[in-house]
């Protein structure tokens, strides 16, 4: 028997106890007699394999069993339920501007500051091109064994992006047999039908274990107006058109506009997507003490979003308009303005259909060698690529629309509908076509071990290349679309890294951990980070822990090389000059951006109070300087309205409220400070397993503005108290009941307050026999509606904070043979 095989045959009982205690838990320390014989395992947040599962850093583990019983069908849905998630992220209910992607936002510090790993190695950025975050849709749920969430800074271990924490997704390995799974769900309103199936097969092959799998899923759409809580939209862009704020009277003249357009009839509350994933893992001992691992994953995503027909705004030259249409716009002196704004909701073209087709590939090959002195070496190569094509159907060509208006004034100013054929023949409507992609290549090598004094160590090197591009439609680039103008993005960078880590047991109960890393970027130069932690065991069941660390985040391709792009943001015009709450802001990037810098500190206690009852409590604090961010446009507008001329210049507006050149530039002037407390309680008694997990936000300040306990359409939600309660009951060996409750404390907005919200979810799992299991349940049992957020980013709320889908029934079944 080889050394590696012998190690694998010694089961780590400590891990089993911790994971069996509850499906979702903070990792607990369990003292075991003879621990020196327990297999050393990898723990997220460290390069050193260890015998215990409790390091100085807090880690939450989510099991595949809990995922199945909860009816989760996406990684984003799983992570968004965590109390540590806050701020704004993208998901199935992000209809406006999501590009179909799904992201995670730990601590509310920004999706770009949470590092996503797959089996301890980086995932390629993925989405619709030049992305700075991972699209969680690319990771099929059926291949997941566990999800580990590291909730402190880890740049000294993993490098850039791990400022707020790390999400490490562990896939199924050493799998034997064949498992077929099918799932489906529908809301109690009869919409949002979703379903899918997966096939997983594992067998011994070529001296190792081969796992292959496939997953298909199809998520159905929900229309916003089909939810009672969604108020009718009130847009000044009306189907009949308006000139100078006046609408046609049907007799060749114009009268003041009194009606508005309800855009909720055409917009999605839940966006449809179709996913196909193929994946494989192969692990084999190619020599007595050398192991080969091969991973491959491919995901195809086809997704859609639908929004109301394009709101078109054209500034018309009044000298080219017929007098009978312009006479009433003359002032008391008979002077006609040089321009009049023509607005029209282009219902004749149809709703805007956003579509994405993305292909994401990832392949990783690794070699690990196990030496007789309890040390090991490893080498790996990882390649990732993401290609995308996205389109916007029924887009409007502003230049051709303006020409058509001059040539057919009676048609455009009549207030009557126009035919789709007429708009097509005039070149007014077209399909916008864009493409983009991301690429990543990583070479890594490391050496780690434990000496005779039980001092653990790890050293390694890494070389990484990242590139990305996004090419908008030529009409969009030229600014000829009625949508916002956008320039192309393209660029790349490389980084070479070296790191070291050590764990020293000063005494039997006191251990010190330290790590350092140096990264050299082709774009800005070098960045050094460090981490220092310690654990102190008072008794076998009581341990204190603390970690202090520095971190950084390198600017992404889009932040460095992104062209100017427009964004219609939900803002309040203090001058009341704008007719709509969506106001155009020009976003710009900067090739000279420097990395963000951070400092983090966590300190807490792990206490096994008695058999079956344990708790952890951790205080955490993160401070970011030189943050790559944009100024708060709303705040600068308000200050400019209050005669702060510096604020006016900062965003390119005038003291009189001319917002036509409003600009938000990326700079290194941002700052974030946040702190809070995480508390976890786990209790097991007989058939019952109970877990309570909560986060209390003490502070969240960005650029001098405090956001703790607040909510808004641009920032998302920063509830001061978020909690999850999980109660599992094994009624028999074959029947399990699961109840979960998700609590969100009320928040304050701009002139309004939201109430506390609790979502209740129930499910039951039944093992028909050893091979066949059926699970069914209800999400949002009491059909709790989202809180009203008047300045929300969609549906008069914030969809990534509150459930806008409603009560949903789900069922899944699996058969293994």
UniProtKB/TrEMBL annotation:
Source organism, top-level taxon: Bacteria
Membrane listed as a keyword: yes
Pfam family, one: Plug
Stretches assigned to the TonB-dependent receptor-like beta-barrel domain: 326-781
Principal subcellular localization: membrane
UniProt-annotated location(s): Cell outer membrane
Family that this chain belongs to: Belongs to the TonB-dependent receptor family.
The name this protein goes by in its record: TonB-dependent receptor
Organism lineage: Bacteria, Pseudomonadati, Pseudomonadota, Gammaproteobacteria, Alteromonadales
């Amino acid at each position: 028997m080889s050394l590696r095989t012998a190690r694998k045959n010694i089961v780590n009982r400590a891990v089993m106890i911790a994971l069996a205690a509850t499906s979702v838990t903070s990792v607990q320390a369990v003292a075991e007699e003879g621990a020196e014989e327990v297999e050393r395992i990898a723990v997220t947040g460290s390069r050193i394999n260890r015998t215990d599962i409790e390091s100085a850093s807090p880690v939450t583990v989510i099991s595949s069993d809990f995922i199945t019983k909860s009816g989760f069908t996406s990684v984003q849905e799983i992570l968004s339920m965590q109390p540590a998630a806050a701020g704004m992220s993208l998901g199935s209910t992000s209809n406006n501007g999501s590009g179909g992607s799904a992201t995670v936002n730990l601590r509310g510090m920004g999706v770009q500051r949470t590092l996503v790993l797959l089996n301890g190695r980086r995932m390629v950025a993925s989405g619709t091109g030049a992305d700075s975050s991972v699209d969680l849709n690319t990771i099929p749920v059926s291949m997941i064994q566990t999800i580990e969430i590291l909730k402190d800074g880890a740049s000294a271990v993993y490098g850039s992006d791990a400022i707020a924490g790390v999400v490490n997704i562990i896939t199924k390995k050493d799998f034997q047999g064949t498992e077929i799974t099918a799932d489906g769900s529908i809301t109690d309103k009869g919409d949002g039908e979703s379903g899918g199936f997966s096939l997983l097969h594992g067998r011994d092959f070529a001296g190792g274990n081969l796992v292959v799998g496939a997953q298909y899923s199809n998520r159905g759409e929900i229309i916003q107006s089909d939810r009672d809580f969604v108020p009718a939209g009130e847009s000044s862009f009306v189907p009949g058109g308006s000139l100078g704020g006046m609408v046609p009277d049907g007799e060749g003249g114009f009268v003041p506009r009194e009606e508005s357009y309800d855009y909720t009839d055409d917009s999605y509350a839940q966006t449809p997507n179709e996913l196909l994933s193929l994946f494989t893992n192969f692990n084999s001992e190619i020599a007595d003490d050398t192991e080969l691992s091969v991973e491959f994953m491919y995901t195809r995503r086809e997704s859609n979003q639908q929004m109301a027909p394009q709101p078109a705004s054209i500034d018309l030259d009044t000298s080219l308009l017929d007098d009978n249409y312009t006479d009433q716009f003359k002032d008391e002196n008979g002077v006609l303005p040089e321009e009049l704004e023509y607005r029209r909701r282009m219902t004749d073209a149809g709703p805007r259909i956003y579509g994405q087709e993305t292909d994401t590939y990832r392949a990783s090959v690794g070699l690990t060698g196990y030496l007789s002195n309890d040390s090991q070496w490893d080498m790996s190569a990882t390649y990732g690529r993401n290609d995308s094509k996205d389109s916007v159907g029924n887009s409007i060509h502003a230049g051709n629309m303006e020409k058509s208006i001059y040539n057919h004034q009676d048609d455009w100013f009549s207030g009557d509908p126009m035919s789709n054929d007429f708009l097509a023949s005039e070149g007014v409507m077209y399909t916008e076509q864009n493409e983009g992609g991301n690429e990543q290549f990583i070479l890594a090598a490391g050496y780690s071990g434990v000496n005779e004094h039980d001092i653990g160590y790890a050293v390694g090197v890494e070389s990484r290349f990242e590139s990305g591009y996004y090419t908008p439609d030529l009409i969009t680039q030229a600014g000829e679309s009625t949508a916002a103008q956008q320039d192309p993005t393209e660029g790349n960078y490389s980084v070479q890294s070296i790191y070291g880590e050590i764990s020293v047991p000063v005494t039997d109960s006191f251990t010190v951990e330290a790590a350092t890393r140096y990264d050299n970027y082709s774009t800005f130069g070098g960045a050094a980070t460090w981490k220092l932690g310690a654990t102190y065991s008072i008794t076998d069941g009581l341990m204190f822990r603390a970690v202090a660390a520095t971190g950084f985040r390198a600017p992404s391709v889009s932040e460095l090389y992104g062209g100017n792009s427009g964004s219609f943001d939900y803002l309040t015009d203090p001058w009341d000059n704008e007719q709509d709450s969506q106001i155009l802001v020009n976003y710009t990037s900067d090739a000279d951006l420097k990395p963000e810098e951070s400092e983090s500190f966590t300190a807490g206690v792990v206490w096994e109070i008695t058999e079956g009852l344990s708790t952890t409590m951790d205080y955490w604090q993160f401070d970011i300087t030189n943050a790559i961010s944009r100024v708060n446009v709303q705040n600068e507008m308000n200050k400019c309205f209050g005669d702060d001329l510096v604020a006016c210049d900062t965003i390119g507006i005038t003291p009189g409220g001319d917002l036509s050149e409003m600009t938000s530039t990326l700079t290194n002037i941002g700052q974030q400070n946040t702190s809070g407390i995480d508390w976890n309680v786990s209790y097991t008694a007989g058939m019952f397993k109970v877990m309570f997990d909560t986060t209390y936000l003490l502070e969240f300040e960005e650029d001098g503005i405090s956001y703790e306990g607040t909510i808004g359409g641009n920032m998302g939600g920063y509830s001061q108290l978020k909690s999850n309660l999980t109660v599992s009951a094994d009624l028999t060996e074959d029947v399990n009941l699961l109840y979960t409750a998700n609590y969100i404390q009320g928040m304050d907005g701009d002139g309004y307050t939201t109430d506390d919200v609790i979502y209740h979810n129930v499910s039951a799992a039944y093992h028909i026999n050893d091979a066949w299991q059926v699970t069914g349940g209800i999400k949002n049992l009491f059909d709790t509606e989202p809180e009203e957020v008047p300045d929300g980013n969609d549906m008069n709320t914030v969809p990534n904070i509150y459930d806008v889908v409603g009560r949903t029934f789900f069922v899944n079944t699996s058969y293994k043979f």
